[in-house]
Amino acid sequence: MTEIRNVTKANGTRGDAARPSSWLTVLSLTAIALLIALGVWQIERRAWKLALIDRVEQRVHAPAQPIPSPATWPTVSAANDEYRHVSVTGHFLHDRETLVQAVTEEGPGYWVLTPLQRSDGTLVLVNRGFVPSDRRDASTRRDGNPQGEVGITGLLRVTEPKGGFLRTNVPQLNRWYSRDVAAIATARGLDHVAPFFIDADARSQSGGGPIGGLTVISFPNNHLIYALTWFALAFMLAGRLIVTFGGGLFRRKEPWSGFVHEAASGSDAVARRTGSDAGTIVEPT
What we know:
The chain has three domains: 49 residues, no CATH class; 78 residues; 121 residues, CATH 2.40.50. By secondary structure, the protein is α+β, with helices and mostly antiparallel strands. A five-stranded mixed barrel has the order 3-5-6-10-7. Strands 1-11-13-12 form a four-stranded mixed β-sheet, with no helix packed on it. Strands 8-9 form a two-stranded antiparallel sheet. It is elongated, with a radius of gyration of 39 Å. It is 28% helix and 26% strand. A hairpin with a 2-residue loop joins strand 4 and strand 5.
């Protein structure tokens, strides 16, 4: 006896791949555009950073030039003047020095900032160099304090207002964490002070005095890595959008006929019929 069992799909059609919602598609495309824009911005930043590094290298290794004249002091800026190799002459006011906390390749200690008075009466703060903590007291390094007129060469640096990272200068307690020219001048009662200071080089060091020439010039340049990261994320998101939503957006609907299972007795082999009853499967009972 042959028993026929018919099982058909209710609507007789193949289920379509899920179509993405409009807002999700728009959001994905917006994210891709934003990631690409970030990548392009990092490429532009890299070009700017390379130009900055090249400009600073030229300034550092150029012959020393006299410091800017007082008439040009208001226009001195980091972009145009920082790290210029400069020279200045005058005599130090050692009794007005200021110690600024520092950590260098020599270890923890202090920068010694001493006003240098020029022949025209103007003053320039000179970072004479580094001293360790056990030489904080000026009496321990008097032999290294030059008297009379001296010539200083070094790098022009812009002021560092307010303080260091998470540490604010406290002038009332003589605690300094950054080389804030204006604040130091006010605390020491100095007038006609240049709005910048000079990092003295090693040639300006006197015997027994602070260690000069420890200026660290470093400009991190990771912009290419950042750019590649943004571009990679944009590429992966675009690929995911195509794989996940592409079929739903572009796949055509295809009709799908239902199927019928028939159980056949005896030695009837499993056969697939063709023609009007295609999709019927005959199975032995």
